[in-house]
Automatic annotation (TrEMBL), chain A:
Pfam families xrefs: B12-binding, MeaB
CDD domains (alphabetical): MM_CoA_mut_B12_BD
UniProt protein name: Methylmalonyl-CoA mutase
SUPFAM superfamilies: Cobalamin (vitamin B12)-binding domain, P-loop containing nucleoside triphosphate hydrolases
Source organism phylogeny: Bacteria, Pseudomonadati, Bacteroidota, Chitinophagia, Chitinophagales
From TrEMBL, chain B:
Organism: Niabella drilacis (strain DSM 25811 / CCM 8410 / CCUG 62505 / LMG 26954 / E90)
Start and end residues of each Methylmalonyl-CoA mutase alpha/beta chain catalytic domain: 79-217, 288-651
Protein name: Methylmalonyl-CoA mutase
InterPro entries linked to this entry: Cbl-dep_enz_cat, MeMalonylCoA_mutase_a/b_cat
Source superkingdom: Bacteria
GO-annotated molecular function: cobalamin binding; intramolecular transferase activity
Any Pfam family matching the protein: MM_CoA_mutase
């Protein structure tokens, strides 16, 4: 497995909002060909470790500027060891907040490397990252990674419902196209597990929509499990990738949820060849539902449809002229259409136009608008009623197309009612109102001062005549 | 002669024509100038506050016998110059308040406000008593540990445990808050408390207000000799457990110097349980009208720069609106409901113009939101306060001037707010980012210059950083030096006797105009992105701050931005980065005490807290004012319990990249 792509989890420590440094580090790592699963700031040890195991990462890189680093890093090492995942290397940094003697103690505890400000000065940023990659890719590290499954005995780690370690590793092997015949993690390979595909343009809010659907699934079905496979493109030039979907996900750190972020690697298509294998692994693991999320490449890409039972297209009201809708292939194939960011201008028009287009594409000339699977959502809003509707549509569609038998009477938790928009539509230009008003005032001052000066001068001259 | 007359007539006709184009208000300003000037030439300045006439001296005499005017007025004769000066500058206390919002500075109250917070509440309480020992005005500023900042409870889980009481004080219950501010009368007009907390601000605010109310209950109980009754209530409540106690594991000998015991006799109890409802209600109403201070609670800048958001942005804003409504209903008029902060935006790397523009834009966003909830501008605008950083850049010399001027113009002309609403008040903290870990002795020099900018600009409140802040938590020694910086400027530096020292400087006036226009231009850029919230969604503010931070780092690294003792003027050893020998961290006994206290609190309130949390959630679903419910909820629920209950009904913050 020498040619294995390095995968790393990056985050800032718990109760720590300082995310500037880790963002710089992860960018350099990406440029060195590393696949980064970025979690952002304020992440606890348990969720980071769970993520690293589910993602079958080689290493975790953490910044900690808020103190408590000794406990934090040691706890991380402990949890990894307990889980039989001591092969996952831990790297860290915290500028001057981590003292030299503390760095020594952490190294002695088994933390791969804590970088100090002095390292930064000596090696430079790039040098530091190269050092990190060298350690993570060393022969010893690779061997430990490969031999890790020998340590995976007993119940699944971290109280997880599924054996997330073997699921993760099987996907890794599939991805590396290693055809070693390893045992499938669980022997339910025949089980029919429904797969929902979510695709849409970049920035439409797919991961927020996915997170909100996952949350409702976990709340609504307290016994059921779910797997999410999320695909992002690799950078052609460097081979690295930013797998950023997890950063928006709040629901996924859950014993009944498994998530795997995948890069397209060298395939120049929206979905990598190993996707089908990853789906098979999750099916074999007998999850109750699988969500495949993919960015897709451009309006013409509908390749996701080949992998899934029910497909959902996520878009925003900002697609341009109505004729643009005629170019979107997914409007031919999608079982469900979600118009997200429904608080944006033109949302109502968009809903009408997309419905019209959907009717045309599906020859549903007589269908009622309300019966069409086209829904406006605001996934950024907590417990958005639009997402509730979307969730129920998805469940019904799964029952209809896959005989999934999910309970359709699921009710949603009551939550605080909130305005659709914080600033009322008619006041949206408030800042320009202010800048205009202040500039007008300044102009007025200048005009009035000019008049006053002239009056002063005239007055002076008039006085001279007296 | 005839010719002469006709010229004069022509001139007079022109004069009258011109006068018609003059705004009558402007004419008044010119006409009233001599009178205004006379008012400031007197020895005493007279003004009225709440029907009281106050006379303050207008001059101070130097050792040489020179009379130094507190407010010096321009010597202009040209009416245009005089008019322009009054419309754009004016004396302090007059629209557009460029030079300051008060006619004269309050006597006997320096703007000093020092930040403190470490370990358990008792330890920080001791520090508060230390830093305020010599000041007649007790101006306390609280730093909370990161566990509290993120709305969680202390606990043994190692990633939490390590952070308890570090870089701030650990506060999880109302009893913690009572200890923290004990020995200071929170309803005394000379006490004012600032709390740096954002995500869970409403909860901490409820802790604080309850602590203040119960202090007044204590005083009532003492005055009416009701301690027997109170003790009986306590005995009953703590039949099976130990009542909470004030105990500093680091100083077990007892209360710190200057502590009179106020605020500790009702630990574990609410005055409500001891006093008759009527009495309690009256005390509560009175306390709410008297408390003075600020809670940061600025959720917008958290998303833009500092990342301590915990609730979804909409819900966080709803909570802020609830606090503001509660303040209006209960006439909480001396406590700022929000401190709209540029400090963290600047610390994250923004330049001073961006700091000011983003912060004011955030401020106007709160204004629009509160108006949309039906509040009246004059009911809430006076509750808003601002908080800026002062670094070394030239623009910092006018940051307060520009802020006050834009705010006043907009509130007056667009929002039709009254004079009180037009007055922007702000706190300055000297820039932490401008301090370096090399040659740390030089840091006090930087802080001194920044403090001078702030004092010349008539800031309303000031924190000076300690020189060792770049490498560690400040010690009592370094904090003392930081306080001395302010004292030396305020008490020793002769020019600081003047309260409009920088007015009339050509450079200052030009900078003010330039920065004002730069801020307006930034408003337009944010507007193009859909306003503050729209721009946030595209991460416009974040990206801009990052870009500016990189620019600074680049200039620092290539030496084109000279930093003495950092990239130039290095000492023989090359001015190495200093590492602290030892870092002040909270101790094991403090952490264990916090956890034990929390466990006791939760256990003894188990039944009541379940009910209270349900009530809170129901109120959220019903769309009620949540702060009103929180005020009761904190009697029996801890911070973490409340945060998690609110997540269920309001949603957690969603990170983005």
């Amino acid at each position: 497995m020498e040619k294995n792509t390095l995968r790393m989890v990056t985050a800032a420590s718990l109760f720590d909002g300082h995310d500037a440094a880790i963002n710089i580090m992860r960018r350099i790592l990406q440029s060195k060909g590393v696949e980064i699963i970025h979690l952002g700031h304020n992440r606890g040890v348990q969720e980071i470790v769970e993520c690293a195991i589910e993602e079958d990462a080689h290493a975790i890189a953490i910044t900690s500027y808020q103190g408590g680093h000794m406990e934090f890093f040691r706890y991380m090492k402990d949890l990894l060891d307990e889980a039989g995942c001591g092969h996952i290397k831990i790297f860290g940094g915290g500028g001057g907040t981590i003292l030299p003697q503390e760095i020594e103690a952490l190294h002695a505890y088994g933390i791969a490397k804590i970088y100090s400000p002095d390292d930064g000065r000596k090696l430079g940023l790039e040098g530091m990252i190269e050092d990190l990659v060298r350690i993570a890719c060393s022969e010893v590290s690779v061997a430990a990674f490969n031999n890790a499954p020998e340590n995976w005995k007993g119940a699944p780690p971290l109280g997880e419902k599924k054996e997330i370690r073997s699921i993760a590793r099987t996907i890794t092997l599939a991805e590396a196209e290693i055809s070693e015949n390893r045992q499938a993690p669980v022997s339910h390979a025949d089980a029919k597990v429904p797969v929902v595909g979510i695709t849409g343009t970049g920035g439409a809010g797919k991961s927020s929509v996915t997170d909100e659907l996952v949350r409702r699934f976990l709340n609504g079905y307290p016994e059921k499990t779910i797997a999410v496979i999320s695909v992002d493109p690799s950078r052609k030039k460097t081979g690295g990738a930013l797998l950023g979907d997890r950063i928006r996900m709040n629901a996924i750190a859950h014993p009944r949820a498994y998530m795997r972020s995948m890069a397209t690697r060298d395939d120049h298509v929206a979905l990598s060849r190993s996707i089908q294998k990853a789906l098979d692994v999750c099916k074999a693991a007998a999850f109750d539902l699988i969500i495949l999320e993919s960015a897709g490449v451009g309006q013409s890409d509908a390749s996701i449809v080949d992998y899934v039972d029910v497909s959902m297209y996520v878009m925003t009201p900002e697609y341009g002229a109505a004729s643009q809708l005629e170019k979107i292939n997914m409007l031919d194939y999608a079982d469900l259409v979600c118009i997200n960011k429904f608080d944006k201008a033109g949302a109502a028009d968009a809903l009408m136009e997309v419905r019209k287009q959907y009717k045309r594409n599906h020859q549903l000339w007589t269908a009622n608008d309300e019966d069409l699977p086209v829904t406006g959502t605001i996934a950024a809003k907590f417990n958005d009623p639009g997402v509730n509707t979307l969730f129920l549509q998805m469940i019904r569609m799964l029952n209809k197309k896959c005989k999934a038998a999910f309970d359709e009477t699921v009710s949603f938790r009551d939550t605080a009612p909130m305005e659709r928009s914080i600033i009322p539509g008619k006041r949206i230009r408030y800042l320009s109102d202010i800048s205009e008003s202040v500039r007008n005032y300044n102009r007025y001052v200048k005009e009035q001062a000019d008049i006053a000066t002239k009056l002063y001068q005239l007055n002076g001259v008039i006085k001279m005549y007296e | 002669m005839a010719q002469k007359l006709s010229v004069k007539e022509t001139l007079e006709a022109t004069y009258q024509l011109l006068q018609k184009q003059q705004d009558p208000r402007c004419r008044e300003l010119v006409d009233e100038w001599p009178e205004l000037k006379k008012k400031y030439e007197k020895d005493l300045f007279e003004f009225t506050v709440r029907d009281r006439t106050i006379r303050l001296p207008l001059t101070v005499t130097s050792l040489s016998g020179t009379g130094i005017r507190k407010i010096a007025l321009p010597q202009y004769k040209d009416w245009g110059d005089l008019l322009k000066w009054q419309l754009q500058e004016n004396v302090p206390g007059k629209f557009p308040f460029t030079a300051g919002v008060f006619d004269l500075k309050r006597e006997g109250e320096d703007p000093t406000r020092m930040f403190a917070g470490e370990g358990c509440p008792e330890r920080t309480n001791k520090r508060f008593h230390y830093v305020s020992a010599d000041a007649p005005a007790k101006r306390l500023s609280t730093a909370f540990d990161s566990v509290t900042l993120y709305g969680e409870d202390p606990g043994h889980r190692p990633d939490i445990y390590g952070k308890i009481g570090n870089s701030g004080v650990s506060i999880a219950t109302v009893d913690d808050a009572k200890k923290l501010y004990s020995g200071f009368d929170l309803c005394d007009p000379a006490t004012s408390v600032s709390m740096t907390i954002n995500g869970p601000a409403p909860v901490l605010l409820a802790f604080f207000l309850n602590a203040a109310i119960d202090q007044q209950c204590e005083k009532y109980i003492t005055a009416h000799q009701l301690w027997d009754k109170a003790d009986a209530v306590r005995r009953e409540k703590f039949e099976n457990g130990r009542p909470p106690q004030y105990r500093n594991p680091l100083a077990p000998q007892g209360l710190p110097e200057g502590h009179n015991g106020l605020g500790l006799r009702l630990l574990g109890l609410s005055g409500r349980k001891v006093l008759d409802t009527e009495v309690y209600t009256a005390i509560r109403a009175d306390a709410l009208m008297k408390v003075r201070g600020t809670v940061q609670a600025d959720i917008l800048k958290e998303d833009q720069a500092q990342n301590t958001c915990i609730f979804s942005t909409e819900f966080a804003l709803k909570l802020m609106g609830d606090v503001q409504e509660y303040f209006i209903q209960n006439k909480v008029r001396n406590f700022y409901s929000v401190s709209i902060s540029g400090y963290h935006i600047a610390e994250a790397g923004a330049n001073p113009v961006t700091q000011l523009a983003f912060t004011l834009a955030n401020g106007f966003t709160y204004v629009e939101y509160y108006l949309s909830r039906g509040m009246h501008i004059d009911d809430f605008a006076p509750s808003l306060s601002f908080f800026f950083s002062n670094g070394m850049d030239p623009e910092y010399s006018v940051i307060g001037r520009v802020a006050r001027r834009i705010w006043a113009k907009a509130i007056k002309n667009i929002y039709k707010g009254n004079e009180r609403s037009q007055k922007l008040k702000y706190h300055i903290q000297t820039s932490g980012r401008s301090l370096h870990a090399q040659e740390i002795d030089f840091n006090d020099i930087r802080t001194t210059l920044q403090a001078l900018y702030a004092i010349y600009d008539n800031c309303n409140s000031l924190h000076t950083n300690a020189y060792d802040e770049a490498i560690t938590t400040p010690t009592e020694e370094s904090v003392r030096r930081a306080m001395a910086i302010q004292l030396i400027i305020n008490r020793e530096l002769g020019t600081a006797r003047s309260e409009n020292f920088i007015q009339g400087s050509f450079v200052i006036e030009e900078l003010t105009d330039l920065v004002e226009e730069a801020v307006l231009a930034e408003f337009d850029r944010i507007n193009e992105r859909g306003g503050v919230l729209g721009a946030m969604e595209r991460m416009y503010q974040r990206n801009k701050i990052q870009e500016e931070s990189l620019y600074y780092e680049m200039k620092k690294n290539d030496g084109s931005l000279p930093l003495i003792g950092v990239n130039t003027f290095l000492n023989k050893q090359g001015s190495p980065t200093l590492l602290p020998g030892e870092v002040i961290r909270s101790t094991e006994p403090e952490k264990e005490q916090q956890i034990a206290n929390l466990n006791d609190f939760q256990k003894r309130n188990e039944a009541q807290s379940t009910r209270a949390l349900l009530k809170l959630k129901d109120a959220a679903v019903a769309g009620d004012n949540l702060f009103e419910v929180l005020m009761d909820c904190v009697e029996t629920c801890s911070l973490g319990q409340i945060t998690h209950a609110l997540y269920e009904v309001g949603g957690q913050y969603r990170r983005s990249m």
